[in-house]
Amino acid sequence: ITDWFETGLYIFTSLGPEGQGYQWVGDHIRPRVRVPEKWKWPVGVSVSTEIGYQRAAFSADTWTWEIRPIIDKQAGPWYVVFNPALERSWHGPSVSRGTEFSPNFKVGYNVTKKLAAGLEYYGSLGPVTGFDPLSEQQQQIIPAIDYDFGENWEFNFGVGVGVTHGTDHLLVKMIIGHRFEWPTSKVLKAFAKGR
User: Fold this and answer.
1) What span, in angstroms and rounded, lies between the C-alpha atoms of 109 and 112?
2) Does an H or E element contain 107, and which?
3) pTM exceeding the 0.85 threshold for the entire prediction
4) pLDDT score recorded for residue 22
5) Rounded CA gap, 144 and 107, in Å?
6) What percentage of the chain exceeds 70 in pLDDT?
7) φ, ψ for residue 2 (rounded to 5)?
8) Nearest-CA neighbor of 82 among 107, 49, 109, 105?
9) How many angstroms from the chain centroid is the CA of residue 179?
10) How many CB atoms lie within 10 A of CB 134?
């Protein structure tokens, strides 16, 4: 929408066992603000908040909220990002757990101009007032690739494993994203250039 504000919409689906096919899981909306690139900070800094609904068949906590600070850096072919996220359930059995700490981390390397390979980590450690025992925490490690189909597209695919008893053993993830230009963004850009 501007050079410092965007909004994302996620549509989650699941491919079940044979005969079930694809199913709609839920939707999330994610507004995000960031430090504009023209400020030339040494690292990228942004904050997103995500509000979403998941069907009870897929998550007992049907309404959730997340605030995700994002600190990232591109250094030559290397890309590093850290997300010390806080999550909260608004409807479901986890409401009484309060706010939980869910850190995420990624290290990527541009193998070619179009293809990057990396390692992603997703964790859910428990309430900020006292983390869960290690066996109950969710910890996933996912080797993943990102492919550049153009500046308006995002593609990420990975297959990973859960490394604790509280985590799904196998996880397959894929993100296909498309960026749309907000109608007013052209007007704002022209105004910023004094036209």
Assistant:
1) 9
2) strand 100-110
3) no
4) 85
5) 10
6) 93
7) -140, -175
8) 105
9) 15
10) 13
